[in-house]
Amino acid sequence: MRGLFISGTDTGVGKTALMAVLLTAGRLAGVNWMAAKPVQTGVRPVRGRPSRPVGDLAFVARAAGWHPAAEWLPHLQPYVLPSRSSPHRAAELAGVRIRLSRIVRGLCLMSRFADGLIVEGAGGLLVPLDGSRTMLDLIAESGLPVLLAIRPGLGTLNHTLLSVEALARRHLRLLGCVAVQSTPGAWTPLMLHNLDTLRQRGVPVLGRLPYMCRFARAPRATVLRALRLPMLRWVYPLLTCAVRERLNRVPGGARMRS
Ligand SMILES: Nc1ncnc2c1ncn2[C@@H]1O[C@H](COP(=O)(O)OP(=O)(O)OP(=O)(O)O)[C@@H](O)[C@H]1O
Ligand SMILES: [Mg+2]
């Protein structure tokens, strides 16, 4: 499987925003990136066979101008659970057991049709999926390297260092961290100092995603505008890195702009 797994230091930290930017950039570059959100909570599932994605996947599809085929949806978002709670609780309330094998089988199948997969977790790394397993177990099973969405402000040092340590303990590969500004406001000296502190401690901070005005209402136009910002120069090298091996094996295959 080629691609990356987006996790974060918390829920609401900007994982979906990051996925929207990466999927849009990847598809603009002519590379067949697909997105997946294996466990979506807080969204009522569609009765019968869904024809369109829901929740975070629907939002990133809109941003990227991507229309996943209906038959892919059970693989791209196998668990859609109505309760707005942690995956293990939402599954319990829905009378469902989250099976990692089902998720990973679906992702592997999809990866045959894609140059790369961008998979979004739910919450942070140690969010429970059932009585014993967490998001870390799903990441380990998927074999995908991790991109961590982090907050730039106060509290991020502790949250980010804990997350990096949790990945290292499981020998999971961290591609890097991106500081996402999910609320309006300028980048303060404290935020920039936080990112420097993380770098000094060996954390690969790849870059920043600024607050994008009108993102929720007009995701595609907003992301297209944001991708022109010098602050987002890290996007294409990151995507290239995540799919390089696969592209190198395809004679005349699409190449990313860097
Ligand atoms: N860079 C940004 N610009 C504008 N709005 C943002 C940005 N990043 C995040 N947001 C907003 O902040 C909120 C939380 O962001 P997002 O949904 O990406 O978090 P998440 O980590 O995916 O949350 P969850 O754990 O629920 O999946 C959303 O309303 C989103 O639109
Ligand atoms: Mg999300």
Question: Could you walk me through the main structural features you see in this protein, from its secondary elements to its overall organization?
Answer:
By secondary structure, this protein is α/β, with parallel strands linked by helices. The protein has ten helices and eight strands. Residues 8, 11-17, 56, 122-123, 149, 180-182, 209, 211-212, 215-216 line the site of adenosine-5'-triphosphate (ATP).
**Structural class designation:** alpha/beta
Q: How helical, in percent, are the residues?
A: 40-55%
| Biggest sheet character | 6 strands, parallel
CATH architecture: 3-Layer(aba) Sandwich
The general outline is globular
Task: Write a short abstract of this structure.
The protein is of the alpha/beta class and 258 residues long. It has helices at residues 15-28, 55-64, 73-76, 87-94, 100-111, 135-142, 156-169, 189-200, 219-226, 235-249, and strands at residues 3-8, 33-36, 39-41, 79-81, 116-120, 146-150, 174-180, 205-209. The chain has a single domain, classed as Rossmann fold, CATH 3.40.50.300.
